[in-house]
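Quick one, probably user error.
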């Protein structure tokens, strides 16, 4: 958090209920992407700034060193009024 801006890096956590084969499948896909296709592991990132009753920002994915990033997509949220 810096000023009115918050940046979140999401770590997809595997649920205990998914089981061994779901985790193994994800590991195989990650191995293929990294070692066969040369695609580095990417981490989802969300960055928002508080603007009154709303949030304005972007979401994207980035490599661990932030040298490779996907295109940023606009993210907005507005508080509902009763």
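Nope, works fine. Designed sequence:
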């Amino acid at each position: 958090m810096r000023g009115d801006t918050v940046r979140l890096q999401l770590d997809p956590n595997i649920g205990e209920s998914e089981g061994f084969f779901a985790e193994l499948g994800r590991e195989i896909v990650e191995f293929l992407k990294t070692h066969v296709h040369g695609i580095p592991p990417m981490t989802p990132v969300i960055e928002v700034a508080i603007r009154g009753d709303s949030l304005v920002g972007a979401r994207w994915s980035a490599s661990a060193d932030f040298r490779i990033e996907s295109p940023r997509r606009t993210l907005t949220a507005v508080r509902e009024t009763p």
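DSSP finds one helix and four strands in the chain.
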